[in-house]
Input
Amino acid sequence: KAKQAERSAVAFGNQLSSLKEQNPYAALQIPDMVSAQLDRNAQQTASATAALQGMGPEGAAQVANLNQAAIQQNADIQAQQNEAIMNKELYKANAQANINEREIERKQKIIEGRLTGAQQTAAANRQAGLDAISAEL
Output
C-alpha cells in the first residue's frame, strides 16, 4: 500500500511539474489601424486640395491648413497604433510573469512534498529499525 501511494505521489508530482500554461496574449494580433486610415486621409486631402485649388489665394491658404491637419491626424493614428502595441506587450509580459510565478510555486510544492515524503519515510524506517532492535532484545 505504501509503495502504491508513493508511486501515485511521484506520478502526480511528474504531472504537476510537466504542466505548461499558455500565455493568452502571445498570439494576440493588433490590427493595422494606420495603413487604412492613412489611405483615407490621403484620399480626402487630395479631394479637398483639388477643390480648394480652384479658389485662388484663399484656397491656397486652406490647402496649407488642410495639409497640416492631415499630418496631425496621421501622427495621432500612429500614436494610437503604438499605444495598442505597447499595451499588448505589457499585458503579454504581465501574463508571462504570472505564469512563471505559478510555475515556480508548483515546483516548490513538489519539492516540499517530496522532502516531506522522504522525511516521513526516513522516520518510518528509523522507527522500524528501532522496533526490530527492540524485538531482538
In short: The two ends are 29 Å apart (CA to CA). Helices lie at 2-17, 33-53, 57-136. Residues 57-136 form the longest helix (80 residues).
